Structure formats: C-alpha cells, structure tokens
Amino acid sequence: MMPWFVLAASQVPAFAYNLTDLTELRVQPIGDVITGFRLINDGQAQSGDGNPSISWNNTIANEWQSPLDTSQAALYEVEAVEVSRSDPGGNAVFTGTIGAGTWQGLGTTRPWTLLQPEDVAINAEWIIDFTVRDVAGQGVVATARITLQSRVA
User: Fold this and answer.
1) Which of 77, 123, 141, 144 has CB 3.0 to 4.6 Å from 19, enough for a Cys bridge?
2) Domain residues of the chain, as ranges?
3) Are the C-beta atoms of 71 and 106 separated by less than 8 Å?
4) Does the global pTM surpass 0.70?
C-alpha cells in the first residue's frame, strides 16, 4: 500500500494573477518598426520592440501569473478585444488573435504585434483590452489595456 501525503497549507504554492495597463512605444527614423506584447505559457508577460524584428526585452514583474508554472498556466485562457487601431498610412501589419468571445488557452504562448513598415513616416497604434480567466470556473483573474505604438519618424 502506498502512503498518502498531505501537504500543509503552507506547502501549497499560492498563485497570484495580475495584468497592468501598458504602453509599448518604439520610434525609429529608418526601417520597419515593430512593437508587441505576449503572454507566455509559463506565466510571464513580456513586451518588446525592435527594428527590423522584435526583441522581447521587457519581462513584466509578477505578471501574468506568479509564481511561474506551466502546468498552472494551462488552466487559464485569455480574451483580447480590440479597442481601436490607427493606421493612417494604410500599411501597418497587426498580428494576433482578437475578438470578443474568442478565448485562447494559455498553455501556449500568445503574442500580439504591430509592424509599421519603413516606407511611411507615420505613427500606427493598436489598443487591446485583455482579460484572463480560469477555464474551469470562468472567473476573471486579471484585466489590462495594452497599447502598442510603432512610429517611423
């Protein structure tokens, strides 16, 4: 017979969930400009920017899940709803799944990016509201508004 082990409450990791409103801006005089935000399947949230490709250079402390745990992260999902987008030059590239009621599992890393090509000196902007909820009970654990701005100036 296998012995049973019971963890004391102090031994069970307590998870915290959080998202913070964020604006990620990149201004570049020449070349493609890209900004992005992603929720990683281990519980991290990152923003980044680059020219010509993105560097995920900003890991946001205590976001979206703390402590980090891939098996726990898989129990959650995200909804990304577009608030607005501005593409005055008509050639910005917006990537990432958005839509009210479109829930994506966070057992997979989920990125959203905005690319402003170099051929137009202009500012592109994408504002997205994010909601994270648990899959089982569908209770919301975190929300935030993320603004991506890519500017060729």
Assistant:
1) 144
2) 18-152
3) no
4) yes
